Amino acid sequence: MTDFTADPSVGQTRGTIADWLGLIRFSHTIFALPFAALSTILAFTTPLGSGQYPAIRFQDLLGILCCMVFARSAAMAFNRLTDQRFDAENPRTATRHLPSGRLTRPRVWAFVLLTSVGFVNSTLLFLPNTVPLAASLPVLAFLLGYSLAKRFTIAAHLWLGAALSLAPICAWVAIRGVDSNLGMSDLMLPIILAGVVASWVTGFDIIYACQDADFDARAGLHSIPGALGVPMALRIAALSHLVMIVLLCVLAYVGRIAGLSWVFAGAVAMTSILVVVQHRLVSPGQLTRVNEAFFNTNAAISLILLIAGALDCWLT
Prior knowledge:
With 316 residues, the chain is mainly alpha-helical. The protein contains 14 helices and no strands.
């Protein structure tokens, strides 16, 4: 068994700001945050049952931003804690902050606690809408639970997709919870958008996990590449992304009630091209460009859809 305890002499450091941002992969916030922002825009531009529109409050916008940052930070830090032993044994991840001793477990545990409390407290910004506060602990538990999923199911990739897909639903409910009955007719747009996020994230997480297929199989971790092999995993990822494109087309059609039109339709076409590019960058025998496929194309996808959605909703 590999000893993953940090060197005590190194453990005295508190870590730099760069270390903490690296621990939670802060740059990857660009994946989920734009979808929460798009859902927020759609929530404001979709009429309520009364024909009126939700009031725009600064505290709601601040609450969505704070909830996103705190929830994601808590989940990522918890993931690093639960995966520390596996990270230390895997050559690709052995230099991460906990295995290398740049940060210590007690400090990271404290960080998880503080960000979790920050997430729950941020939901108070939505008052008198009490739905976000009531849902905060179940949502947080689901987000943290992903970190344990690879111990018992190859559906861990889908769990991650579902976890990130909560962002557009939660943003919608935070904006409209008081003024809407939150029935299926009102939740249709965020549910479709959540489906887009879930299928998108599931697909690119499977691609990313292909780097560790051999290690996962040896370590007894459940992942689609480790269980089914890289060629089959890439096919499943492609299928997941096909579902994403179909749901984006549905969103472009249904979202006309919120103002989505030809600009967003053009963004869906561009997204389809980027998805194809992403899959052409990787193959069973060529995984060296996974990081390029993972970060560059997916960052572009989220920003393109957000910008197009904002333009459509506010200019039409």
